[in-house]
Amino acid sequence: MRPIAYHWLLAGLAAALLLALGLVLQQGPMTLNWQAALFEAGSVDATILWQVRLPRALLAVAVGATLGLAGAALQGLLRNPLAGPDLIGVTSCAAFGAVITLYFGLAGLAWFALPAGGMVGAALAVLLIWLLAGSRGGALILILAGIAISSMVSALTALALSLAPNPFAMSEIVYWLLGSLANRSGADLAISLPFMATGWVLLLSCGRYLDALTLGEESARTLGFPASAARWRLVIGVALSVGAAVSVSGNIGFIGLVVPHLMRPWVGHRPGRLLAASALAGALLLLLADLLVQWFPTTQELKLGVITALLGGPFFLHLVYSARSRAA
Q1: Axis crossing angle, helix 167-178 with helix 90-103, rounded to the nearest 10
Q2: Distance CA 306, CA 229 (A)
Q3: What's the CA gap between 150 and 155, in Å, rounded?
Q4: Superfamily of chain region 53-319
Q5: CB-based burial of residue 214 (10 Å sphere; 0-12 exposed, 13-18 middle, 19+ buried)?
Q6: Which of 121, 139, 264, 315 could form a disulfide with 93 if both were Cys (CB 3.0 to 4.6 A apart)?
Q7: pTM listed for this prediction
Q8: pLDDT tens digits, residue range 67-85?
Q9: Where in the chain are the domains?
């Protein structure tokens, strides 16, 4: 596929994102009176817009941007197109960190406990992947390391679920496993957004290093890039952003794997340019997935993680089939 001008690509994605945001704000069981919603403070329409629909839509944008950006950064760092926050266990570990804070009641003690648990879990996952697979590990080693980490975390999560002290704790744990943005408020956005934004800044600052890394670590070091500092920025950036995102949305898969693959041909396969494009595309994809969730005519709203898995699973199978065809 022929790459297009980078600024036109970003402008097109931003315009599509704004259009999707407008559609999401109109979606719901009640049709909004926009004049009342915008200019009559305290009205029912204003309450629905500012306290229900807008926080949920902005969280979908932030979480989607985080997962897309983190997926592109991990693929560039590990130089492996199969790397992604969910596939290699980062989102599972972040969700487990959040589950631990819920299980022991730490989430009710301090406002930062839940995002902190998610960030610690994500950081441990990235460090384990780095130790097990390294930057030179092939696709097989990466996938095996991710499967091992995800299996251990799934077992620990199942143990926490089976030993849940009460039905409320059990329902909260199930929520984090399935992933959803339902009933999210402005407080959730205010708690998680600073951590996600800090992670975005750290990841976007590594664009030139990721471009140089395509030539090899020695070449990147020769070009003057401090490899150790850049790697730590990437690890901390992924931990902060993914941990904070999962702490408010639960385990949402496949965004970090699918989006970089869709955007890579449009940016000329340059890892540095892929970062911003994947962030915008990830925000757009998750916002549309959340819109699809609200459109489904079901008595109980579907979980967002279910929709992304249904969309991402066939795409991953397509990647496997394409890889087999090239190898044949």
Answers
A1: 170
A2: 37
A3: 8
A4: ABC transporter involved in vitamin B12 uptake, BtuC (1.10.3470.10)
A5: middle
A6: 121
A7: 0.86
A8: 999 999 988 887 877 777 8
A9: 53-319
